[in-house]
């Protein structure tokens, strides 16, 4: 009897009133949310349309074809003040990419050096690294940018009194001037051989791996690849009669002539972002290496693996698994922080967009372009790093 | 049997063994920490050389050669630049910081009214200090004073306009005061908002979940400066004609929304780290959703993510410096504004002002991070292994 009672649960009938049914409540709350959301969006859209009408601003992206009429300090593609707004934004986008990529590379190098330094047995090195991290982590990046821009680079000597560095590099308050390579006739062969050398290195590396897996013999890969990548283009360079020459900056009466110049805006942004982000990367690297258990190192030593090789083959691959996800978000932070360029007038996407916004009043369009570009940059970086992470991740059977 | 002719009998005393390697004292410490291996020795010597090359000039520049007092740019410029310092002089211009110190604190707030922000500041320190020390009792009253009474007082005192206090409009606000107001409000808004967003993102209701996820991901994907631009150029477009927001308030909204998206992700990390059993235990006790969250899940989750929360606070504090780009004068903005003061323009003024501002920011951020480390140890109720 008792068994019969317990085996017939009343599943279909909720016991309480319909008000207490969590599912009904959930649907009710969601409907309310949607109604409020739609009402707010409608209200905003209505106000916006009215405001735009009153301010005589035509909405839409047609303005991108208009003449920009302003100059940008630095551009990777051809640009004059007669170019369109759209082209100005592309210039800004490339400038953002340029400072982000160079910044990421430098920040990674400094960050890894400092992070490893914090774990050093050498007391002095560890303390110096700690001081670096604590100083740069706790200061706003904008302040670091101004520090370089108006504190350091602006008080460098005038162009005619440029400080001369080795290799014909000059430093003054207009930036850093360095020899510009001039590609003469035949230089394309140097480039072709370089591409061939890179492709060949890839196959050599594959061959070396297969050979090691089959026979256990190690192939002197590093030297072969170096020889290929440096040697082949060098041979081509000499064979075609040294077509690449350098346009060296020469100190004139008032200014330097010739060579390439990197402006102080780019330099200060690049330096500030690299130093600032490096402090965070250092902490990530330290956490990653500390996260590899000591047993791994001891086991490798017990197997007779030398310390350097232990670090390379045992510790680093495992540490990378811990390091990569937070490293990705630091790279994204650096890319987003590059928008601080607007404060010192480096023509990045936000600075160019801000100028356009002031000239045309197309606030919604410009802001939407910013959002789309930064979101796609974020997503692309995440995808790349996730792919890299998946390659590095622990393969469990 | 007694043919053991080869028995060895030692005729002389054994040589004294060398004394054991010292395991204490300065010599041992130096050998272990600085000169353990040849590589270590080389690194130490290189670092010492770099330090010897950097530190004495820095100390010289910052303290010994610095101009501490003076009434104008003359003390911070060489004779050739129209000042009184000898040729080739270079040093920090602390006289500039000294002369502008009040402005760095209060911006262009009217001088006779500066007691108001000063009073709010003193009350803030008075209410905050006992809050931060775990042993001080009456935390509830303290929290009400800090989070309810103080904001109301600040709302009355800072803008004025009530009780016969003259009205001070926000464009006149500036300096450290703006930085602190922005960060305090940003922190006070972003933590609850971030918790709500995190709960929303983990909600079982698809519409709520989608909305929260969308908000968090979009805000996290774009730089703060675009959010501030949105708040300062797009918000006026969204409102009906005639309704205007104060610029300061718009920046506050932008900063708070931005920080809450980051806070949401930190809190979500904590929520995910709480075992399923805790949720199910709360459910089986018949607790409602909010009871479950308030009494069981959030206390554990928030405790886990204190470092992340404080990191977000520190980030927020540093990010308030960005409002200087949209034309407000926070600490960094007011320091930069004073570079253009003709009375103080010299080659070393900008760098001195920036070092001062950097030092203030550093003090606050470093203090916060140290305090979070301390709280982590206080709240660590787990069993030590």
Automatic annotation (TrEMBL), chain A:
* Signal peptide limits: none
| Biological processes annotated in GO | amino acid transport
GO CC aspect terms: ATP-binding cassette (ABC) transporter complex
Q: A Pfam family for this UniProt protein?
A: BPD_transp_1
- Key words, A-Z: Amino-acid transport, Cell membrane, Membrane, Transmembrane, Transmembrane helix, Transport
Where are the membrane-spanning stretches? Answer: 27-45, 89-114, 135-156, 189-208, 220-246, 266-285, 339-357, 369-388
Where's it found, cell-wise? Cell inner membrane; Cell membrane
A molecular-function term among this protein's GO annotations: transmembrane transporter activity
Q: Where is the ABC transmembrane type-1 domain?
A: 93-385
As for membrane topology, the entry says: Multi-pass membrane protein
Q: Which domain of life is it from?
A: Bacteria
State the similarity comment.
Answer: Belongs to the binding-protein-dependent transport system permease family. HisMQ subfamily.
Q: What is this protein called?
A: Amino acid ABC transporter permease
Native source organism of the sequence: Ensifer oleiphilus
From TrEMBL, chain B:
Keyword Transport listed: yes
Q: What is the lineage of its organism?
A: Bacteria, Pseudomonadati, Pseudomonadota, Alphaproteobacteria, Hyphomicrobiales
- Provide the protein's localization: Cell inner membrane; Cell membrane
NCBIfam families hit by this protein: HEQRo_perm_3TM (TIGR01726)
Q: Name one GO biological process term.
A: amino acid transport
Q: Which keywords appear in this protein's UniProt record, sorted alphabetically? A: Cell membrane, Membrane, Transmembrane, Transmembrane helix, Transport
Gene3D superfamilies in the record:
MetI-like (1.10.3720.10)
Membrane topology term: Multi-pass membrane protein
GO CC terms, sorted: ATP-binding cassette (ABC) transporter complex
From which organism does this entry originate? Ensifer oleiphilus
Residues crossing the lipid bilayer are: 41-64, 115-133, 145-165, 171-199, 211-239, 295-316, 322-339, 351-369
Q: Which PROSITE patterns match?
A: ABC_TM1
GO terms (molecular function) for this protein are: transmembrane transporter activity
**Hey, which family's this protein in?**
Belongs to the binding-protein-dependent transport system permease family. HisMQ subfamily.
Q: Does the record bear Repeat in its keywords?
A: no
Name of this protein: Amino acid ABC transporter permease
Q: Which residues form the ABC transmembrane type-1 domain?
A: 176-372
Q: Name one Pfam family in it.
A: BPD_transp_1
């Amino acid at each position: 009897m008792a068994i019969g009672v317990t085996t017939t649960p009343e599943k279909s009938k909720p016991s309480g009133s319909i008000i207490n049914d969590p599912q009904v409540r959930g649907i009710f709350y969601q409907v309310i949310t949607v109604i409020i959301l739609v009402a707010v969006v409608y209200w905003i859209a209505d106000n916006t349309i009215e405001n735009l009408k009153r301010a005589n601003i035509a909405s839409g992206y047609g303005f991108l074809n208009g003449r920009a009429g302003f100059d940008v300090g630095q551009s990777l593609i051809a640009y004059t003040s007669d170019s369109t707004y759209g082209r100005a934004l592309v210039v800004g986008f490339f400038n953002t990419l340029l400072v982000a990529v160079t910044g990421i590379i430098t920040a990674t190098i400094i960050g890894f050096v400092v992070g490893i330094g914090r774990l050093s047995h050498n007391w002095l090195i560890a303390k110096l690294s700690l001081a670096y991290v604590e100083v740069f982590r706790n200061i706003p990046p904008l302040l670091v940018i101004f520090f370089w821009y108006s504190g350091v680079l602006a008080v460098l000597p005038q162009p005619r009194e440029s400080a001369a560095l080795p290799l014909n590099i000059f430093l003054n308050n207009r930036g850093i001037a360095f020899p510009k390579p001039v590609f003469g006739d035949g230089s394309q062969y140097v480039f072709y051989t370089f591409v061939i050398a890179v492709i060949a290195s890839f196959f050599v590396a594959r061959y070396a791996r297969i050979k090691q897996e089959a026979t256990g013999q190690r192939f002197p890969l590093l030297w072969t690849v170096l020889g290929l990548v440096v040697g082949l283009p060098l041979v081509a360079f000499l064979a075609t009669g040294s077509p690449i020459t350098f346009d060296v900056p020469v100190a004139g009466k008032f200014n330097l002539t010739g060579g390439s110049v990197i402006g102080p805006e780019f330099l200060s942004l690049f330096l500030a972002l690299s130093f600032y982000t490096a402090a965070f990367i250092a902490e990530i690297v330290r956490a990653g290496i500390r996260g590899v258990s000591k047993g791994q190192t001891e086991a490798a030593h017990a197997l007779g693996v030398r310390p350097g090789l232990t670090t390379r083959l045992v510790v680093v691959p495992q540490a990378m698994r811990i390091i990569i996800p937070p490293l990705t978000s630091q790279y994204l932070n650096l890319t987003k922080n590059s928008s601080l360029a607007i404060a010192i007038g480096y023509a990045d996407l936000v600075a160019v967009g801000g100028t356009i916004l002031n000239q045309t009043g197309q606030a919604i369009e410009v802001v939407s372009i910013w959002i789309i570009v930064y979101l796609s940059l974020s997503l692309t970086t995440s995808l790349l790093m996730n792919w890299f992470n998946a390659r590095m991740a622990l393969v469990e059977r | 049997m007694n043919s053991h002719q080869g028995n060895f009998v030692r005729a002389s005393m054994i040589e004294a063994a060398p004394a054991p390697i010292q395991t204490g004292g300065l010599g041992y410490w130096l050998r272990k920490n600085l000169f353990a291996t040849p590589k270590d020795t080389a690194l130490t010597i290189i670092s010492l050389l770099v330090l010897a090359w950097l530190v004495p000039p820095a100390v010289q520049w910052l303290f010994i050669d610095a101009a501490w007092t003076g009434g104008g740019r003359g003390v911070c410029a060489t004779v050739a630049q129209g000042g009184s310092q000898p040729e080739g002089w270079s040093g920090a211009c602390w006289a500039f910081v000294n002369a502008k110190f009040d402005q760095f604190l209060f911006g262009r707030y009217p001088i006779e009214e500066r007691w108001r922000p000063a009073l709010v500041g003193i009350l803030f320190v008075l209410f905050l200090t006992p809050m931060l020390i775990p042993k001080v009792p009456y935390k509830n009253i303290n929290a009400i004073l800090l989070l309810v009474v103080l904001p109301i007082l600040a709302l009355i005192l800072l803008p004025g306009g009530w009780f016969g206090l003259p009205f001070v409009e926000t464009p006149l606000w500036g300096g450290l005061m703006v930085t602190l107001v922005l960060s305090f409000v940003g922190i006070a808004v972003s933590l609850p908002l971030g918790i709500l967003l995190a709960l929303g993102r983990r909600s079982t209701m698809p519409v709520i979940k989608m909305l929260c996820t969308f908000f968090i991901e979009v805000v996290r994907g774009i730089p703060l400066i675009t959010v501030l631009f949105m708040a300062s150029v797009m918000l006026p477009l969204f409102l009906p004609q005639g309704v205007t927001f104060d610029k300061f308030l718009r920046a506050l909204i932008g900063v708070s929304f931005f920080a809450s998206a980051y806070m949401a992700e930190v809190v979500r990390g904590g929520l995910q780290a709480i075992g399923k059993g805790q949720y199910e235990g709360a459910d089986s006790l018949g607790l409602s959703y909010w009871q479950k969250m308030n009494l069981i899940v959030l206390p554990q989750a928030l405790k886990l993510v204190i470092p992340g929360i404080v990191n977000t606070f520190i980030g927020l504090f540093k990010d308030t410096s960005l409002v200087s780009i949209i034309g407000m004068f926070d600490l960094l903005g007011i320091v930069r504004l004073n570079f253009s003061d003709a009375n103080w323009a010299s080659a070393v003024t900008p760098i001195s002002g920036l070092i001062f501002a950097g030092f203030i920011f550093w003090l606050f951020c470093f203090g916060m991070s140290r305090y979070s480390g301390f709280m982590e140890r206080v709240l660590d109720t787990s069993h030590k292994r």
